[in-house]
Task: structure prediction
Amino acid sequence: MRIACDVHVHVWSAAEHVSPAFLKQANEVSGRPGCLNVEINRMDEIFEPVDKVVVFGGRAIHSGVHCPNEFVRDFVKRNPSKYIPFAGIDPTERNFMQDFEQCVGDWKFRGVKLLPMYANFDPRDRRLDPLYTACEKKGLPILFHMGTTFVRWAPLRFTEPMLLEEVAERFPDLKMIAAHLGHPWEHQTAVLIRKQPNIYSDLSALFYRPWQLFNSLMLMQEYGVTRKLLFGTDYPFTTPMETVERLRAITKFGEGTNFPRLNPDWMEEVFQRDTTRILGIV
Ligand SMILES: [Zn+2]
Result:
């Protein structure tokens, strides 16, 4: 079993780059202490089945996430043809464009990761225009965390997928990924990716709510947008093989009944989808 690309992987040192208050909430809600721990020394083994892996840290000062991009730069040196770095940018930081320029100019990062809800900004905020303009011009995709969270002080109003429509209207050639199907606003994601040619979504970190995910995937199938779905894990929350197994299991829901069924073929296509080519970053 090979997976062409995992578009959603975090690398950080949880102890150093994530605040104790954030870690405490993550551990309590997940019931899995240490769920944010990245096993840096086992990454090659965990991602052995995956050809290309998009990696980033995460910057959202408001919520206590502050992984320096240097950490990601140093990580990818272990295998630059496999690990593709995206810059973690927080536009509420004074020097965010300098960070961005250093990442993409000096270090050849290939895209950007934004965390609007965690960093407490609206993706439509004009502050981001220099970043959006540069990414559109340079052909760099932006992966947005979209979807709810356990973090108390991260405002949900900044994480609805529909917010990206205005960005797409102003930057029509900017490639964007609304992560996590924008749960629990998957209906917004379905209609958004159907009409906006440069917006995609990923399936990361959703399988632990299998009934909700089954319904979300049915929604994507019925809207005819499965070709816009990308494989992702959200490691360290999940791993590639666990994600594949759990997604395949969901395609078996309803077997032997008259319930509507997911077509397993398109799910296999998601595993084989060459996301780096689609995003133009190879
Ligand atoms: Zn993530």
Q: What stands out?
A: The longest strand covers residues 3-10. Residues 4 and 51 are 5 Å apart (CA to CA).
